Amino acid sequence: MKLWTGELGSALRRYRATLVTVALLSALLNVLVLAGSFYLMMVYDSVLPSHSLPTLIGLFTLVTIAYGFQGLFEHGRGKLLASVGSQLERQLSRRVQRAMSDMVRLGGKTDGDGLAPMRDLDQVRSFLVSTGPATLLDLPWIPFFLVVLGMLHYWLGLFALAGAIVLIALAVATHRIGVEPTRELASLTAERSSQAENALRHSEVLSVLGMRGAMERRWHMINQSYLAAQDRLSNAAGKLGSFSKVFRLFLQSAILSVGALLVIDGKASGGVIFAASLLFGRALAPVDMAIANWRSFTATKTSWGRLNELLEAIPEVASSNIALPLPQNELRLEGVQAAPPGHPMPSVSNVGFAVEAGSVVGVIGPSGAGKSSLARTIVGAWLPRRGSVRLDGATIDQWPAERLGAAIGYLPQSVELFDGTIAENIARFATNPDSDAVIEAAKLAGVHEMIVRMPLGYETPIGRDGSWLSAGQRQRVGLARALYGNPFLLVLDEPNSNLDQEGEVALEAAIAHARDRGCIVIVVAHRPAILAQATHVVLLRNGRMEGFGPRDEVLAPLLRQGDGRKLPAAA
């Protein structure tokens, strides 16, 4: 794992002083570990033969102090690592969320439910607050303990070195055979979660259309693959882990035997046997811990690499020192080509027109003509593959999204409300919403009376995706959200698809109000009635603009093709 590279490495370098402190605490801890071994050796070799009580009390006092500092340093090391993990997540969580969103918007490849980057960040934080970092910091101290064993007697050092080499080889082998299964398991976990979430979200449709069994079978197949990958991972770890554990127990007994032979041969004291056993156990403990935590190591390495790749692919946009004023004059499209994120074929090609403040533009065309694609591109939900969308001459990416959002009102075809109250949704979940602006937007959308008749009024919760509201209510609340703050550019995609006559009247009034105050309104329409207030019309067919101009000029030939009372089906 390239720890210090990429954006994550840069973020981690901010805590370099803390990590250096952690490393120093680890050094002190490993030195203090010697206290227990030497205490045991001194008691056996000096206190017991001399029956000296003062010596025992003195040694016990010293070892107690050493244990006290050891506990203090251990606690400090864990607290510092936990602090680094928490601060790193707070620093990166918003950045990762935005990168996830931009990756989807730009058509990048996402796994399963698309939430893998957040799970990766959770994995990194969880690793930092676990015993994993302490284990990694203790591993370099293995040679130190082997040298100390060698100082007791070189045969003890050589035997311990041979055993350590075998255990380290097992740890490396465990890591290598687990990399691919861990990566496969992570991908299947995301796909499994995505399938389960979709089944829960669309449970009504699945039940009514008799699709539940088919979706359950689909989830079962993914779950079987997931369980098989988990079994492969567990088996790989289990075999080497079990052998490592048994081999370490064997080494503990073998080191005692080597020590006993040295005592019999008169080359070591009896206390050396016990001190060597403790030192040998402490020397190999980090290797045991590494094998036990190898899944966490591997998962964290994979997560770290994926996060770095994501953040490199979606670089953070540097904030400009020049804050452009919000647009208030013109919308201009120049040769725009756009496509759904990740889709190879464009759904809109070579669309260009310009309108000024106070214009109402109707976008018409048959199904699949690219009307919704054009709407998404105008508001910046999709980035043009070619060409540009400009407001007052500047491309929309020249404003920070949060700032430009105040100048844009958007009602997508699917509405897309969020779990919260009606007021929160209308106010776009602003931290300090303007109550007067919320009520004004609701009145413009003709939904104020409906809201106040509800038991909780504007504080009425609407459920996930607004599921506690009817389709018409969702559309009118979505319209109020689009109107909130009197935006300059208002884009409405099929805004009357679920409206009754009262809702249609409110929609027409809202469009008229927006036009009169100098707003540019883009209306994607199938029904001709909503085009009554249009000043201009864009005609799309097969993703290309076949006409643009004043409403009557564009509609006249289409009306002649029809019966004189309504647009033909193709329009």
Task: Explain what this protein looks like in three dimensions.
- The chain is an alpha/beta fold.
- It has 2 domains: 6-313, ABC transporter type 1, transmembrane domain (ABC transporter transmembrane region fold), CATH 1.20.1560; 331-561, Rossmann fold (3-Layer(aba) Sandwich), CATH 3.40.50.300.
- The chain has 20 helices and 10 strands.
- Helix 16 crosses helix 18 and helix 18 (471-483) packs parallel to helix 19 (501-516).
- The model is unreliable at 563-571 (pLDDT under 50).
Please supply descriptive tags for the structure shown above.
Rossmann fold; 6-stranded mixed sheet; alpha/beta; 2 domains; ABC transporter transmembrane region fold; 4-stranded antiparallel sheet; 571 residues
Summarize the structure.
By secondary structure, this protein is α/β, with parallel strands linked by helices. 61% of the residues lie in helices and 10% in strands. It folds into 2 domains: 6-313, ABC transporter type 1, transmembrane domain (ABC transporter transmembrane region fold), CATH 1.20.1560.10; 331-561, Rossmann fold (3-Layer(aba) Sandwich), CATH 3.40.50.
